[in-house]
Amino acid sequence: MSRRERPAKPALTRERIIAAAVAIMRAEGLQRVTMRRLAAELDTGPASLYVYVANTAELHAAVLDELLGEVELDGASGDWSDQLVGVLTSYVEVLTANPQLARTAVATRPSGPNYLRLVDRILGLLADGGVARTRAAWGVDLLLLAATAHSAEHAGADATADQQWDTLGRTLSTVDPRRHPHIHDLSDLLLAGSHTDRLTWSFRALIEGLSRTAVPGE
Amino acid sequence: MSRRERPAKPALTRERIIAAAVAIMRAEGLQRVTMRRLAAELDTGPASLYVYVANTAELHAAVLDELLGEVELDGASGDWSDQLVGVLTSYVEVLTANPQLARTAVATRPSGPNYLRLVDRILGLLADGGVARTRAAWGVDLLLLAATAHSAEHAGADATADQQWDTLGRTLSTVDPRRHPHIHDLSDLLLAGSHTDRLTWSFRALIEGLSRTAVPGE
DNA sequence: ACCTGAACACCGTTCAAGT
DNA sequence: ACCTGAACACCGTTCAAGT
């Protein structure tokens, strides 16, 4: 009787754990993806999770890779550099949709399947553009680093982020011209422009720079 | 009598709180700089700190700005771009000495006095190099973003970081050539080179790119 | 205004014991 | 091998009450 009315809990698997983690992240944010919260969701105790997941950092890394599956690798048209900007922009969009995730992306060095897929695509586009192999190899790191950091900074139209931006804006525009002459001089430009424009510009500048800059011993 | 033998506790001030926080960070790492640990150090209860500090994030931001005072702004010789690389390298050195601090630097948007001093110096060097005002204004953000992210990634000769690097190395060199042809093709180059060489190359590429890339509406 | 004790609502991780 | 309960050693933040 109880066999039908309360069916056996499905077995714990790494897959099920990570799926539950992703669900919690989407519903409540990464800060709620804790061992204890997750265990409660899976109707077990936190200790049980340690059979499948080494620690919280590894769990978050797995969630991150899962999300990276959403990055659009072939969405943009145009030449190789337009397409590259498109891929990077998609990456940033995926990350900024989940502020805290972007922050763990900076701390963690991902190596999951979706991350590899992304790296391979970027390398392919750099090859299309005729970027020297050595420059491309180092450049992919720099591009992803910058994209990730951008996401982490703009992470969130959340309240704290906006507030910090405002604070910085006020600080910059009222800066002592004697102590900080250059900031004073450029105060109107420092925070100018939309997110999107600045992001695109950053990517263009990075691509330009990494194409032209020789790697030592090249 | 007891007035001399057990002197009154010095009054709580923001300055004293932050000094204690820096001391704990140097001795035990930022992860120990918690409200409770700090309160214990100052011989009071955690609630008392909230008179001077809004929350843990603000506390960590204050610690960060304090550390930025150690960045060497005039250490390097050479032309403006060599000096700029020098400033950025010094910034990275300060941050990587305290792994977790670099990670909070990505999350937080600093606006303390030492941060302003750093921004002003970088803007000055870009002006020396004749970089267009608009490009310099956006470029300083990009440079600091990349430098911070680099620090956060290489944050630590700590065990986890090294392990992640090794994992990534193994993953990259054994990648399926059919699924990830470009990674396979470049696997020997992707992780090649020393930290320092890669960091310097990144800064050179960034400087090159931001000097040459027009800001929209420029 | 500043400081405090106490409480609320949580954490990660380990480990001996069970199945 | 997998799962669990219970424990250890912590967290941030709030709030009523005191000085």
Order of helical and strand elements of chain A: HHHHHHHHHHHH
Over the alpha carbons, how many angstroms does the gyration radius of chain A reach? 22 Å
Tell me the major beta sheet of chain A: none
Number of helices of chain A: 12
List the helices and strands and how they pair.
2 copies of one chain form a homodimer.
Chain A: H1 2-5, H2 14-28, H3 35-41, H4 46-49, H5 56-68, H6 80-96, H7 99-107, H8 113-128, H9 133-153, H10 159-173, H11 181-190, H12 195-212
The structure holds a DNA duplex (19 and 19 nucleotides).
Q: Would you write up a description of this structure?
A:
- Two copies of one chain form a homodimer.
- With 218 residues, the first copy, chain A, is mostly helical.
- Chain A is 68% helix and 0% strand.
- The first copy, chain A, has twelve helices and no strands.
- The first copy, chain A, is globular and about 65 Å long.
- Mean pLDDT of chain A is 90; it is low at 1-6.
- Chains A and B meet through helix 7, helix 8, helix 9, helix 10 and helix 11 of A and helix 7, helix 8, helix 9, helix 10 and helix 11 of B.
- The structure holds a DNA duplex (19 and 19 nucleotides).
In short:
By secondary structure, the first copy, chain A, is an all-alpha fold.
Key features?
mainly alpha; 12 helices; globular; disordered N terminus; 218 residues; homodimer; DNA-binding
